[in-house]
């Protein structure tokens, strides 16, 4: 059995939610391998870090907002 066949067999055993993650990762690998210069990779990596940072701030702010709502400090 080739690595290709083994990989496909493993993917078939995964739940659908994980198959989507594998699919996204494969898209990333294809994109990465098709990038000719490393600046594209650096830009992607920096963008990813920025998105994760913004999301973390968003969750923190959302939690603070929910707590303030629960304490009655603000109203909906």
- Give the ordered list of helices and strands: HHH
Distance, first to last CA = 60 Å
Number of DSSP helical runs: 3
Care to count the β-strands?
A: 0
β-strand percent reads: under 5%
The major beta sheet can be summarized as:
none
Question: Which whole number gives the mean pLDDT?
Answer: 77
> What is Rg?
20 Å
Which secondary-structure class do the elements indicate?
Answer: mainly alpha
* Helix amount: over 70%
- The gross shape turns out to be elongated
Unreliable stretches covering 5 or more consecutive residues: none
Total domain modules: 2
Please provide a written account of the structure.
The model has no long low-confidence stretch (mean pLDDT 77). Helix content is 84%, strand content 0%. It contains three helices and no strands. The protein is an all-alpha fold and 76 residues long. The chain has two domains: 1-34; 36-76.
């Amino acid at each position: 059995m080739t690595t290709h066949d083994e990989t496909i067999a493993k993917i078939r055993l995964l739940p659908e939610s994980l198959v989507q993650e594998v699919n996204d990762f494969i898209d990333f690998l294809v994109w990465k391998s098709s990038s000719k210069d490393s600046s594209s990779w650096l830009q992607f990596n920096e963008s990813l870090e920025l998105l994760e940072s913004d999301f973390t701030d968003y969750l923190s702010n959302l939690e603070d907002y929910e707590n303030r709502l629960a304490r009655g400090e603000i109203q909906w």
